[in-house]
Amino acid sequence: MLLQALHRYAEQRKLLDRLPFQMRTVHLLIPLKADGSVRGNGFVPLTTPRTVGEKTKEEPGRELLLPRFPGENNGGKAYYLAESFQCVLGVRKESGEPLPVSDAGKDRNPVRAFRHFWARIEEAAARIADLRLKALLAFRDQHLTEVEGANPLFDWLAWRPNESSREEKPEWHGRMATGDWRPIGKLVTVAFEIDGVPLAVPAEGWRADPIWQDWATTYRNKSFTEDAVPNEDDGGVSASANTICLVTGAVGLPVARSHKPKILGVPGLASGGYVVSFAKESPAFSSFGFEMGANAPVSEAAAASYALGLNDLLESRDTHFSVGGVTFCFWAEKNAEVARRAGMAIRSASQVSKFLKAPFAGIEGYDPKQDAFRSVALTANSGRVVVCGWLQMPVTDAVTNFKKWFGQLDVTPPGKAEEGDDEKAGPYSQFRLANAVLPKRKGENAKSARAQLRNRIILELYTKALDGTPVGTALLPRLLEEFVTALLTDNPKQNKKTFPLGQSRFALLKLILLRNLEEGEFMPRVHLATDTPDQAYNLGRLLAIFARLQKKAHEGKLEGPGVVQRYYAGAASSPKTVFPVLINLHIHHLRKLEQAGTNGSRSADSFRAKVGDVLKLIPNGADGRPDFMSVLTLNDQARFALGYYQQHAYDRAASRVGHMLSEARKAHKNKDAQLAELCLHQAKQAVTLDDYPDLFDRVNNFKLEPTQE
Question: Distance between CA 693 and CA 686 in Å, rounded?
Answer without folding.
Answer: 12
